[in-house]
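User: Here's a protein and a ligand (3,4-dihydroxybenzoic acid). What would the complex look like?
Assistant: Let me lay out the input and then the predicted complex.
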Amino acid sequence: AMAQDKFKIGLILPMTGPFASTGKQIEAAARLYMAQNGDMVAGKKVELIVKDDTSAADVTKRLAQEMVVNEKVSVLAGFGLTPLAFATAPIASQSKTPMVVMAAATSSITQASPFIVRTSFTLPQAAVAIADWAPNNGIKKVVTLVSDYGPGIDAEKYFKDRLLFNGGQVLDTLRVPMRNPDFAPFLQKVRDLKPDAVYVFVPSGAGAALMKQFAERGMDKAGIKLIGTGDITDDDILNSMGDVANGVVTSHHYSASHNSPLNKKFVAAFEKANNGLRPNFMAVGGYDGMRVIYEAAKATKGAGGEALLEAMKGQVFESPRGPMFIDAQTRDVVHNIYIRKVEKVNGQLYNQEFATLKDVKDPGKSR
Ligand code: DHB
């Protein structure tokens, strides 16, 4: 096919290094979407070009530049971490290329370029929900423990403000390095402060190490509960966490056990195509991102640039996570946030949703 007969999507992800699980989940979901929906849109052949940025922001930016200039991609997509999305935003603006953020979740990312559309989630959406749940469920004194970068700062701020508003107390706000974190001294500090709970945000993939150290220090036995946004009980690794994870309550937009026919179909197809790997919230951000791209391409008959961007805004559809839409003003995702508790289902650990907050907009946009 000639170049103009193709519709190219440049998918840039961490495929190696500590955040490789995010890349693996999103690539697998994008390929599943294409397998289910065909590789033709608006009479053009869809070509998915996947590149590994190793989670280094300068690499993400360079790859994006190459994709735009050499490959002439219609869309940039992926972005496994906040700094990788921020580094690429100027490329999207300068080249007028829509940029679909499928993973990164710091609130302000969508303000870095008018060409950014997000299908993942925002930390404030999840953080506010668990800060409403906690004080009604015996958790009044909390220590926060977050990864020290964009999403962690959002997770801390929106949780803290809301818990204080609800009459709770934040005894301390601890921040751990984002790369190669040693949680031990921070967990010791938490133990000494004796809160009702420690509230945690760590990025997808890092939760297992934290859970292990939480158990080793006997925090649960000391009566300190663990709560957080759902990143900590990430479906990719939840089942390997063991008993310490059982009973942990979190807030998030996606659980692999979300009870809908569409999600059951999605999970079964994903697991079948990936040797039993369970899809996590990263996978669903990638899957829904492909949906937004495909439908926009159909609506604009394969045109790129601003027309394609406009056709992404305002899309309303059912996702495996539940109902969602792309707010036309903010270009950010609006979806339900669920409160979930880890439970054993047929011997496997799952985040079992038990309460729903409907159509949650990013609280970071209304200030
Ligand atoms: C980000 C990365 C994650 O893995 C996650 O779970 C949430 C946010 C981020 O860098 O934006």
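Summary: Residues 22, 81-82, 103-106, 150-151, 203-204, 231 surround 3,4-dihydroxybenzoic acid (CB under 6 Å).
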